[in-house]
């Protein structure tokens, strides 16, 4: 299969040889830690779900509302900040976001009302809404297009490791001290990252949005937002994020209340989907870059590679109510939802292929704002289903079956709509750029 034109946001093609600047991997590692803190902040409510519901006497519907509240301003904030990073250096935007995260945790250290907890989660969500899109925009200033998939995978893995590393530590704090102190610990960790970023964080040298705005023709936002690849990315990632938001809010309560494990046992079980998902994400990033180096176009190396696991994962998750035993049910849940991770790796680079640099921050942010709307819907749906089911376990199974259907549908839409390799030509009415032949394999590392 021959490589087709794959214009990057900088106006270069996949065949153009560009060196990765010194310091790129240091910034990538710092942003990996940024996403690690981000997801530790997200999961703490789900991890402490049973103690919170017990202490505050919350119903399943109230806890579902708490889980969804995180996403109330998530999308709006993402869009606003996305346009800001078209003009303001990402270094300072990332710093501001991290400070907001840290400060939003400290009110929970003492006695707290449900209203205060709700408000703090809304504020935290507003601060975390733009996180991934701004971090991806920052990383793309350090790597040329053909080398972006693996750094994107590493950035995405901050989420998995945020859970893998934080869950045992936070669960120990919850079990041995109090869920209140788990929030405080996250606030301290957030401030430590702020100090590290102040010392080491830098703006990437490969792209300047100001220079790009002057030299690269803009594409009307309506055309970008209605392009089939943009719609396909939103649709596919919407289904993946449905599963992720359920995992953040309801996985640990399901293990404890649905399957009867203790809080201590649930803490270790809760990291399994993220360990499996981490493997999927790293493999996807590596395989995608190898495929591109071997001449596959990005329709296959990114679009198909990201969508197929969603469909397979949904089908596996659909088997969950029909298998017997906690072990098999957990396996179906872990594998089914873990396969979703592939789509997070490929969609930001696909959008970067055809979006001008001066508009990329906003497009990535709008993409994130739209697909994370499932984070408002999914936890509430699960809470309502559990509340109205004949038994708690039946409610969980119905909720996960709905999740399976959403995943399959979103994966099929991705397969239908993701054609990034020809998107820029369609948007500009021109012929696809013909790159020079690839000079050797692109190293996946």
Please supply descriptive tags for the structure shown above.
mainly alpha; 445 residues; 21 helices; 73% helix; globular; disordered C terminus
Explain what this protein looks like in three dimensions.
- Helix content is 73%, strand content 0%.
- The protein is built from 21 helices and no strands.
- It has helices at 24-47, 49-56, 60-69, 74-84, 90-105, 114-128, 131-139, 149-176, 179-200, 209-215, 221-225, 228-258, 263-269, 272-293, 298-318, 326-338, 341-354, 357-371, 374-388, 392-417, 423-428.
- Mean pLDDT is 84; it is low at 1-17 and 431-445.
Summarize the main sheet: none
SSE run: HHHHHHHHHHHHHHHHHHHHH
Record field, number of beta strands: 0
Overall mean confidence score, pLDDT: 84
In terms of structural class, how would the helical and strand content be classed?
Answer: mainly alpha
Model regions low in confidence, pLDDT < 50 over at least 5 residues = 1-17, 431-445
Annotate the secondary structure layout.
Layout: H1 24-47, H2 49-56, H3 60-69, H4 74-84, H5 90-105, H6 114-128, H7 131-139, H8 149-176, H9 179-200, H10 209-215, H11 221-225, H12 228-258, H13 263-269, H14 272-293, H15 298-318, H16 326-338, H17 341-354, H18 357-371, H19 374-388, H20 392-417, H21 423-428
Helix pairs in contact: 1-7, 1-8, 1-9, 1-12, 3-19, 4-6, 4-18, 5-6, 5-7, 5-9, 7-8, 7-18, 8-9, 8-13, 8-14, 8-17, 12-13, 12-17, 12-18, 12-19, 12-20, 14-15, 14-16, 14-17, 15-16, 15-17, 15-20, 19-20
């Amino acid at each position: 299969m021959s490589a087709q034109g794959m214009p990057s946001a900088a106006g270069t093609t996949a065949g153009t040889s560009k060196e990765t600047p010194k310091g790129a991997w240091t910034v990538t590692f710092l942003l990996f830690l940024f996403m690690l803190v981000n997801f530790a902040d997200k999961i703490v409510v789900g991890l402490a779900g049973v103690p919170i519901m017990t202490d505050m006497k919350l119903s399943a519907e109230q806890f579902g509302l708490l889980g969804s509240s995180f996403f109330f301003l998530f999308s709006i904030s993402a869009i606003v900040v996305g346009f800001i990073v078209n003009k303001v250096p990402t270094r300072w935007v990332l710093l501001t976001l991290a400070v907001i995260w840290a400060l939003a945790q400290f009110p929970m250290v003492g006695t707290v009302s449900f209203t205060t907890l709700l408000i703090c989660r809304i504020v935290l969500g507003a601060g975390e809404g733009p996180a991934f899109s701004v971090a991806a925009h920052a990383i793309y200033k350090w790597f040329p297009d053909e080398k972006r998939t693996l750094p994107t995978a590493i950035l995405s893995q901050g989420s998995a490791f945020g859970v893998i590393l934080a869950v045992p530590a936070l669960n120990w704090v919850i079990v041995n001290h109090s869920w209140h102190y788990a929030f405080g610990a996250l606030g301290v960790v957030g401030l430590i990252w702020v100090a590290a970023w102040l010392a080491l964080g830098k703006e990437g040298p490969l792209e300047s949005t100001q220079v790009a705005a002057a030299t690269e023709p803009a594409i009307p936002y309506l055309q970008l937002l209605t392009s089939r690849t943009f719609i396909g990315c939103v649709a596919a990632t919407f289904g993946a994020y449905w599963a992720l938001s359920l995992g953040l809010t309801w996985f640990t309560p399901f293990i404890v209340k649905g399957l009867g494990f203790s809080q201590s046992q649930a803490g270790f079980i809760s990291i399994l989907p993220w360990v499996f998902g981490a493997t999927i994400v790293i493999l996807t990033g590596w395989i995608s870059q190898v495929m591109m180096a071997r001449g596959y176009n990005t329709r296959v190396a990114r679009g198909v590679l990201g969508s197929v696991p969603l469909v397979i994962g949904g089908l596996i998750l659909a088997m969950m109510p029909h298998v017997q035993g906690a072990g098999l049910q957990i396996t179906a849940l872990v594998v089914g939802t873990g396969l979703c991770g592939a789509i997070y790796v490929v969609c930001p680079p696909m959008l970067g292929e055809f979006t001008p640099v001066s508009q990329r921050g906003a497009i990535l942010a709008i993409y994130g704002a739209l697909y994370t709307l499932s984070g408002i819907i999914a936890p509430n749906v699960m809470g309502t289903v559990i509340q109205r089911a004949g038994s708690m376990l039946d409610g969980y199974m119905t909720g996960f079956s709905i999740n399976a259907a959403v995943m399959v549908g979103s994966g099929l839409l991705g397969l239908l709509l993701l054609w990034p390799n020809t998107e820029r030509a369609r948007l500009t009415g021109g012929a696809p750029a013909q790159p020079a032949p690839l000079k050797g394999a692109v190293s996946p590392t």
